[in-house]
Write a structure and sequence with these properties.
Low-confidence stretches: 26-42
Order of helices and strands: HHEEEEHEEHEEE
Strand content: 15-25%
Shape: globular
Radius of gyration: 24 Å
Mean pLDDT: 84
Number of helices: 4
Largest sheet: 8 strands, mixed, barrel
């Protein structure tokens, strides 16, 4: 009888060991996944770059960032949100999908201007891309502009380039397809294209407050993935206008 008890005890111990060995990789993978996810969101945190943000008083820190990566071209801020990031532009659009502002590999990528646009934002439709991330990182907050109240309460942004801050008056939130031939056309030009572009936006906008510009102005299209359809995109569109009054911190407050 004792023999069989030893056999049963030994078998039980073996089963316990095999169970631990079976679930250990699962446990380790789970721990790694949590760590890896944390790293991704850490790399997307806007606060990592706040020391480089240009101000009205000085832009030395921003110039230091440009020395680290010569493809840094500006800065984008939307007051009242966590969207407050440097802007980059690569020679091809896929470069900054998984590359951070300093040129290092990062799954969270960067906020980047379409490679077809001019770096001075002088085009009719200047298209800027960013990942749709949880915890409101990168362009994760763009989907909030689908809510009319949020859209109305956040009517403007700030764009920095060529050593100046410019205001961006948002007038449309548009759910779109990634292959839309008008909304993602970074090479529109001329009054005819401009009027067709503005008419198209008004026709397809979910939220629309009215554009104060005309067919000859420059516009900023912020684009991120939508989680509702495979090729869905959320677009926030605004008119780029004259340099705003700043308080020296680039947040658009009056002095």
């Amino acid at each position: 009888m004792k023999f069989w008890q030893k056999v049963i005890h030994g078998t039980s111990a073996l089963v316990d060991m095999l169970t631990v060995l079976f679930f250990m990789p699962v446990l380790l993978y789970g721990v790694y996944a949590i760590w890896d996810s944390g790293q991704i969101y850490h790399q997307a945190d806007a606060s990592l770059y706040e020391n480089y943000k240009p101000t009205q008083e000085q832009s030395l820190s921003f110039e230091e960032l440009k020395q680290i990566n010569s493809e840094v071209i500006g800065w984008l801020t939307i007051p009242g949100t966590q969207i407050d990031y440097p802007l980059v532009q690569g020679e091809y659009n896929s470069k900054y999908v998984n590359t951070d502002v300093k040129g290092n590999f990062s799954l969270s990528g960067s906020i980047f201007l379409d490679c077809r646009n001019h770096a001075d934002f002088s085009d009719l439709n200047n298209v800027v891309y960013g990942h749709h991330m949880e915890k409101q990182e990168m362009f994760g907050e763009l989907e909030k502009f689908a809510q009319q109240t949020f859209f109305q309460e956040h009517p403007y942004g700030l764009l920095y380039h060529d050593e100046k801050w410019y205001s961006v008056s948002f007038f449309a939130f548009v759910p779109a397809d990634a292959y839309d031939p008008i909304l993602f056309d970074a090479q529109l030009e001329g009054a005819q294209d401009g009027q067709a572009y503005l008419d198209y936006i008004q026709e397809h906008a979910q939220n629309y407050s009215g554009c104060i510009g005309d067919e000859t102005d420059s516009y900023l299209t912020l684009s991120t993935c939508a989680d509702t359809t495979t090729n869905g995109r959320y677009l926030l569109i605004g008119q780029i206008s004259a340099e705003p009054e700043l308080d020296g911190k680039g947040d658009g407050k009056e002095r």
